[in-house]
Amino acid sequence: LSLIDDFSLSIVTEVSPNGGVKPIEVMAAVYGLTQTEMTSLSSRVRRLRLYLEKQTGEPGKLPDFAAALVSEQGDELRVASSHS
Amino acid sequence: VRSRIAGIHFGLERDLVDCPTFDQANMNYREALDSILPLVEKPARYVGGEWNAVHKSTADVSTRIALCFPDTYEIGMSHLGLKILYSLLNKREGWAAERVYAPWPDMEAKLREREIPLLSLESYTPLGDFDVVGFSLQYEMTYTNVLTMLDLAGIPLHSSERTLDDPLVIAGGPTVYSGEPVADFIDVFVIGDGEEAFPELVSRYIELRDSGFELTRAQVLKELAQIEGMYVPSLYPTSVSAHHGLLIVDKPDDQDVPFPIRRRVVKDINQFPFPSDSPVPAIEAVHDRVAIEIARGCVDGCRFCQAGTIYRPVRERDPKQIVDTILDGIEKGGYDETSLTSLSTADYTCLEPLVKMLGAELERRKVSFSVSSLRASGVTESLAREIARVRKTGFTIAPEAGTQRMRDVINKNITEQDVINSCSVAFEEGWSAMKMYFMIGLPTETDEDVQGIAELGRKVRELGRTRYNKNVKATCSASYFVPKPHTPFQWCKQEDVDSIKRKQRMLKELGRRYRIDVKVHHAETSLLEGIISRGDRNLCKVIERAWRMGCRFDGWSEHFDFAKWMNAFELEGVAIEPYLQEFPVREFDKPGAPLVHLPWDHIDTLVKREFNAREYTKGIKAKISPPCELPVKIIDGRPTAIAPSSEEFERVASQPLLCYACGLECDLTKSREHLNKAFAMHEEVRTYEERIASVKDVIEQPLIKLERAEGQRGGGAEEITSAPLHLRASAPVFRYRATFEKGEQVKYLSHLDLTRALPRAFRRAKIKLGYSAGYHPMPLIQYGPALGVGTAGNNELIDFDSLDELLESEFLERMNTVLPAGLRFKSLLGLAAGSQSLIKEVNRAEYCVRLDAPEIETAVRRMHSEEAGSTAEDVQEIHRNLSCRANPALLNASERISASKLMCDAIRSS
Is a pLDDT exceeding 80 seen at residue B743? Predict the structure, then answer.
């Protein structure tokens, strides 16, 4: 959990093939939100990015996609095609 | 506009006062919607923004027409009639046709709670602000939803209470042929085909309203009644019939008001090509495919079928126009499924060549197709083979009755052998599940006829098990017969519920014994449908009462409340029995005596009432009337008729065509022309097949060369991609990973909706996806972790296989021009073969939540007032809850402490 600015909170959660904790559940636990508030607040949540930390495949042929996503270069990420 | 909105009792006028433009007002409505959408089921039903939806600039629009469907989005989006009108009306310069569907009760409650009017999907315009509000009435059990929609729009429920400042409320569709139960609520009924009548009505209404002659509303309505096919109920008096006790509609004293009201018929439906650019549903519609009406009307003459009467005569679409529309629809919509629909598809004279021609084209595009309403006698081997080419959908036939005697009574021109033959063909082609539709409660029905339904199901199951060694699932679905106005059975008594329930129990018991699935309809729903279907104007007050008592979505079992309806009848002093009775046919018991006037007989369907009376008499005697307009064949000693197959064409096509002089005065030379066209098409397809066979050898040769040139681009690559998939056994497949944004406009799409939207976008972008092998090929796309409904995403991930070698820039350009607003691809990366599955690779997600959200402000105020969160114990409790779900590695003790500090800061900051 970290504050992005005075009005936005960043929440990083683990994701597994079976799912993971939902950000709204984190918010509900912290703020004691009611079920209706949780439902309503869920439409004000935005997923900024997904992290891929164990990249597999052919390392030489692929750029470090995970690193690109994790980088703080903003959301407008561009990853060059391996065919280009 | 502002004055009108201020006039309605929901009034968002406070928001509108400072809004300089209409568009600004609409933005406010979207914001208002956003405040309730997270709280309702399937919010994507209410936000629009679909691909192909028509958005016109306010400055370009002078006439606004709301196309209203009084049922859910999923059902309304499947309706072919609205697709036709939507396209037709939006093609007119200065006109905007927008869609409005009935809100589900949870949404209705929220709209009322927040005082938000019902809005259109395209521009979020309040329904009450449209010039014309048109309802499509397909089913009597949606009538209460009409009242909901009018009320949520702030439009007075009764036509008599409306002024020229209110929209003109009109209705079309099959139930308006007996629309008296909603006559008080509708200004004008449009009787018949809408393609010509609807625009004519709208043009005339706008012309009259804005003429400057200061006409009264009554004058305007009287003028509209002059247009052929327009029934303005307020101009027609009613009286009680001495023969049956119900209200009938009388001839008005005013000689200028037409009586009876003649149905409008479009003579040549090819003048109005079926649209190929209809909005692509955001969420799964009940018929989520390119569906095209190949013909209107039906030659079969089933005596229970209202559509068989009110859509006469048969009018066929040009087969080449159909092929073009389907291929265009697939291209523009990105669908992977299509269907040919009509009242009896097997009777379409060009069906066999059409299906052959389509089959090859659709297989190349990996698009499956189905044929609806296929008469059992029309299922041929070649047809089944073509349908099964890509992937099989369900196999359904409608024998309607279980014994031959009963099928003869209802004039269903098929035999048990036809059913067995159809199922044999289907088993042969790989189907193993058969669904058959029947009715119970038909005139003259005995227990033996009901048992015959189960017997037929048993025979079909046995056929599959013994001859084809299949584990067959046979389902018999039996509905409760409702006598419909304007049919030969309109005079019949509707069987009582207790008797129907006994027959249903008998059928279920036999189903258990024979190991077939038996499905029956909710008897009380059908009973009420029967009452309203043959209802008179007296039912308006009952429907309004039931609606005021809370009846909604009465066709949905979870909402239908029979007790409430019966209470409404009682409170309004209306008995149900007269509506269920057997009506007398003639005024006195003598041949040739005048026919008794029924509550719907002021509507002239163009089919003679005497014809229906003749057919009724024949039906009771179990005498058949083979289909008209087609050459008659004798099969197993019985006369029948069906579009000839290519083998028998020359033999039967020259035979005489049947006509029963029903009143339509069909041009049989036109029918003969259709047959000649079908014959020409048979020939064309034969030539086409020969050409394909010869081309196949040529195409296979360059493929071998191209395999060696893998990875290179050039002219050869184009040849590869233009070759049919089945010829490309070893074509190279590339794997990619792409990031995309799911923005605010589409955040209410569920993950499942997204998995339908993206493959369609690939198709529209003409990017060839890889497909799984087997009987049900599916596009090879892997999606990242699902986003919740209502949550937007900046960098979502998908992996996909493609037969195309793609450059990122080219991919982004092609995809982003075919995506609905809110979806946008941002990057593309080539993956190595054997890369790990995306879902296994993604292990963390970062979210952003606005702390100035009203929900948080409320919670913070509550926490402050309770002084919660200020003690170490409270924080510990919060984290104990969290740790139940959160991964300890990600949220360990020190992180929790750090988090709690941040939280406290955030709370203070808020």
Answer: yes
Q: Do B38 and A19 touch (CB under 8 A)?
A: no
pTM of the model: 0.87
Is residue B802 within 8 A of residue B770, CB to CB? The reply is: yes
Chain B, nearest residue to A2 by Cα? B902
Query: Can you tell me whether residue B59 is helix, strand or coil?
Result: helix
Which SS3 state, helix, strand or coil, does residue B172 take?
Answer: strand
DSSP symbol at B45: G
The model's pLDDT over B758-789, given as tens digits with 9 standing for 90+, comes to: 999 999 999 999 988 777 788 899 999 999 89
Strands B168-172 and B132-136, by their bridges, are parallel
**Cβ(B627)–Cβ(B347) under 8 Å?**
yes
Please indicate whether, in this complex, the C-beta atoms of A15 and B790 are within 8 angstroms of each other: no
What DSSP character marks residue A72? Answer: S
Which chain B residues are closer than 8 Å to A52 by Cβ? 841-843
What's the pLDDT tens digit per position in A32-78?
Answer: 899 988 988 988 899 999 998 654 434 333 334 333 333 333 433 33
Element (H, E) at B417: helix B416-428
- How far apart CA B494 and CA B505 sit, in angstroms, is 19
DSSP β-ladder status, B842-850 and A45-52:
antiparallel
Round the average pLDDT of chain B to a whole number and report it: 86
The answer to whether B785 contacts A27, with C-beta atoms less than 8 Å apart, is no
On chain B, the residues whose CB falls within 8 A of the CB of A5 are none
Q: Which tokens in the block code for residue B178?
A: 């007996």
Considering only CB atoms, B849 lies closest to which of A45, A76, A77, namely A45
Chain A residues whose beta carbon lies within 8 Å of the beta carbon of residue B734? 83
What is the ipTM for the molecules in this complex? 0.79
d(CA B452, CA B404): 9
Contact B339, B312 (CB under 8 A): no
CA distance B904 to B52: 48
Nearest to A10 among B37, B846, B862 (CB): B846
Contact A77 B827 (CB under 8 A): yes
Comparing CB atoms, the residue among B807, B827, B879 nearest residue A83 is B807
Token digits for B142?
């949606």
